[in-house]
Amino acid sequence: MEEKKELRGRIKKILEEKVLHERASSVGLSLEKLSYNCAMNVMKLNEYNSFDVLFAYMAMNTELDVQIIIKDFLARNKTVALPRMLGTDDNGAGIMDFYTMPHDLYSENRYLVKGRWGILEPISSLQAFEMKENTSILVLVPGLAFSYSKGRVGHGKGYYDLFLQRLKKEALNKNSIVKLVGICYDEQLLFDELPMEKHDVFMDVVVSPSKIIR
What we know:
- By secondary structure, the chain is of the alpha/beta class.
- 28% of the residues lie in helices and 24% in strands.
- The strands form three sheets. It has a seven-stranded mixed sheet, sandwiched between helices. A three-stranded mixed sheet has the order 8-7-10, covered by helices on one side. It has a two-stranded antiparallel ribbon with strand order 4-5.
- The radius of gyration is 17 Å and the shape is globular.
- The model has no long low-confidence stretch (mean pLDDT 88).
């Protein structure tokens, strides 16, 4: 099985070529359609409507867009939180937290700014999400590669792995539920298994435009 470094390089090349191809195609809306199909698959999850809180993300160029799901949660007056990068720890691992977004997120153009790598993230004056007792949280997790055993390989900085470990521990202490849903293109769902290390976090479900892996 490929080592993570070689795997990341191969997947990045596949994604870059896919995005360039889709943007150059006569279809024009194919990337948007793939994001739409993936969002519809997330909404098909039996427990989808039972979640109180959505942890989502603002997509990079090579990631599927999940704003349909964000807008759905906001429309139903539920809580939406987005990630903000906060630097690295003493070991060089990435630190991030999720910040609660106002319900007028899409009517006001002042709650998001470009952060590292040009990704939109919450402004620093917003409040970090605070988990309450008996909260149910749906977490949409991007990544570079996913497996049919629901493993995930990220970009290598450890932001999500470190945060998700902390989130799951906090949920256990507060009698809360956290559902991790990996979001990916079909081309990112590659193997039965991936090279996982002890700090890596498995997903509960992996969703692509054409597949739902439970």
